[in-house]
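Handout, section 4.2: multi-component inputs.
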Amino acid sequence: NAGVTQTPKFQVLKTGQSMTLQCAQDMNHEYMSWYRQDPGMGLRLIHYSVGAGITDQGEVPNGYNVSRSTTEDFPLRLLSAAPSQTSVYFCASSYRRGEAFFGQGTRLTVV
Amino acid sequence: AQSVSQHNHHVILSEAASLELGCNYSYGGTVNLFWYVQYPGQHLQLLLKYFSGDPLVKGIKGFEAEFIKSKFSFNLRKPSVQWSDTAEYFCAVNANNFNKFYFGSGTKLNVKP
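Output:
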């Protein structure tokens, strides 16, 4: 049972480039979400989804897009990378009212 | 808006000392409460959770937490810390539709051998 799988683990982008962070879960969880982790700020919610075809914005959605075409996958797209998006990104999944299970994270640097 | 406050940002303890990390949240309805631990360079892992029932919750690795509804608190405790407990600890809440988690800013614990 793989749990939540994120790829890539590390990425360096140039300002203005776009990319997609992949997230897949094999636990049949309804809910999936993306967070960014910055020093001293905890985890901040970027986007979340309560099921296939349903997504919504979190606290810090600007500059990011998501889609959820299947229960398993929830990719996060950076449209035009900026240095302010340098962060560690975590994907998580959960059942309703259950605990969140986290992926290993993607460390993104935008230069 | 929901918020989760962790008052201790950085705690330094010697091995065998007792630990208490504070967590307060701002939401008056039904909540689920969690403590997660993040070891250096790793992802978040669940330490313990509270959904309902006994407000004293026991988790893994000897950790426990107490839910005090009147104080909107969910403090984490461990009677005797070990060097291997060095990590960052996050309190989290989900409530309302239970589709979002709100995290505190984290407490870095450094245990000296």
